[in-house]
Design goal:
Layout: H1 2-5, H2 10-36, H3 51-84, H4 87-101, H5 107-140, H6 148-180, H7 184-207, E1 214-216, H8 219-232, E2 236-242, E3 253-256, E4 262-267, H9 268-273, H10 276-291, H11 294-313, H12 320-325, H13 333-343, H14 345-372, H15 378-388, H16 397-403, H17 409-427
Length: 428
């Protein structure tokens, strides 16, 4: 791979990859956008939704697509400009100069200042889009519940967390790569995996409460959920309701925790909109991911991706041509990682597609497993989730393949009906 790439200018290769990826995304977005222009409800959807809900879903999805296309185009132009005019090397050089002014000459310190500067730029250009999405797009369709004060507070907390979490992992990663030598990729993989596990552990207890309030679920809902958990032997220890409605009208449910200490979290919007049988069907689906070890598989897949990334990066880390082609005078670990990420774009796209394939397969398996638990309200629950969230109801196959981690609503309904028919035949 490296021998082939060395025949070309690395910057030109990266630009080609980025432009090709952007053009491909525009193409599949266009394919999907045509579906949003359909105003007459298709026959296969008439049993799921009505004309009014279908029209609202189509308009919401179309507006989201337009917004996403404009924001991604802006980001694309921003990235291309930074590359074409050597702005990234300029930021790195300024970071070096700043550190030297204070009497230091340390790559880790320079790298952290550089990363903070890049993150600051990204936040500045992204802020207007975040504001518009929250207070105009989501507001228009009745989903936004966020106040301007809460929006500002969230942004401040998010940026503080970004600094607190990024600096340690960035510093540790640079140190490990420089210390470990030829086989650094093994140590880097272990470091990132360990950091991910720590983050998963501390997020529910220390980070999530910074944004939302969690209170124990009591009464009939708790009794029904614990009865289901006992029935299927799901190790639920606590059930929480989160006040998601103070930000959005969207619905969700999930569980977290390692081993035999699982805690269930329900959005208050979900509790409000769903009956107890529907709620139990949603949770049966989530429990099924646990019994089918889907989370473990996804973590393994992610480690495979990181392993290939760090391993291949080892062939480029000290390649002076890579740095020179992008306008850098000398190698630096964090810069090498950033530049190689651009060269790795085709594999990123391929890996994302493969992950979507497995993720959709896991969703089918979880649906089937939930039906075997005896949950009979899975279809009504899924329909309510989609309709209330105004999710897209007509989906282009290529768009779905590249973007959807879940099968479409119609695909899931068809599969569930087939499984129900099979289970019914076995029980006769």
């Amino acid at each position: 791979m490296k021998a082939f790439l060395e025949n070309f200018n690395y910057l030109h290769i990266a630009l080609t990859f980025l432009i090709s990826e952007f053009a491909f995304k525009l193409y599949i977005n266009y394919r999907q956008f045509k579906n949003y222009k359909i105003r007459v409800i298709p026959e296969q959807l008439k049993s799921i939704t009505n004309e009014k809900e279908f029209e609202h879903s189509q308009k919401y999805s179309a507006d989201k697509m337009i917004f996403k296309t404009i924001s991604s185009t802006y980001g694309f132009i921003f990235n291309i400009t930074f590359l074409a005019y050597n702005i990234i090397p300029m930021i790195w050089n300024k970071s070096e100069m700043l550190v030297k002014e204070f009497g230091y000459d340390n790559e880790i310190i320079v790298s952290n200042i550089f990363i903070m500067a890049i993150l600051m730029f990204n936040n500045i250009i992204g802020l207007p889009f975040d504001y518009y999405e929250t207070f105009f797009l989501e507001e228009k369709y009745g989903f936004n519940k966020t106040t301007k004060f809460l929006f500002i507070k969230d942004k401040i907390i998010q940026n503080l967390l970004l600094v607190v979490l990024t600096i340690p992992i960035c510093s540790a990663l640079i140190f490990v790569i420089q210390w470990a030598g030829e086989h650094f990729w093994i140590y880097a993989l272990g470091l990132v995996f360990g950091f991910s596990m720590v983050l998963i552990t501390i997020y529910p207890t220390f980070i999530a409460p910074l944004f939302n309030k969690y209170k124990p679920v009591e009464g009939e809902i708790k009794d029904a959920i614990m009865e289901l958990a006992d029935k299927v032997k799901f190790p639920a220890t606590k059930i929480y309701e989160v006040d998601s409605s103070k930000r959005s009208g969207h619905m969700n449910a999930y569980f977290y925790g390692f081993f035999k200490n699982k805690r269930i979290v329900l959005y208050d919007t979900l509790i409000k909109e769903m009956s107890i049988p529907e709620l139990l069907s949603v949770l049966a689906h989530e429990f099924s991911h646990y019994f089918c070890n889907h989370t473990t598989y996804l973590i393994i897949f992610q480690q495979i991706y990181l392993a290939q990334f760090f391993y291949l990066f080892g062939f480029f880390i000290n390649d002076s041509k890579l740095y020179n082609d992008f306008g850098f005078s000398q190698p630096a670990t964090i810069i090498g990682l950033l530049l190689f990420q651009m060269l790795n774009t085709p594999f990123d796209t391929l890996f994302s597609f493969i992950m979507n394939v497995f993720s959709r397969k896991f969703e089918y398996q979880a649906d089937e497993h939930a039906l075997k638990f005896g949950c009979e309200h899975l279809i009504p629950a899924l329909v309510k989730l989609h309709v209330k969230d105004r999710a897209a109801l007509i989906v282009d196959p290529l768009y779905s393949a590249m973007h959807y981690t879940h099968p479409t609503l119609l695909e899931r309904i068809d599969y569930i009906k087939k499984v129900e028919k099979t289970l019914s035949a076995k029980n006769k």
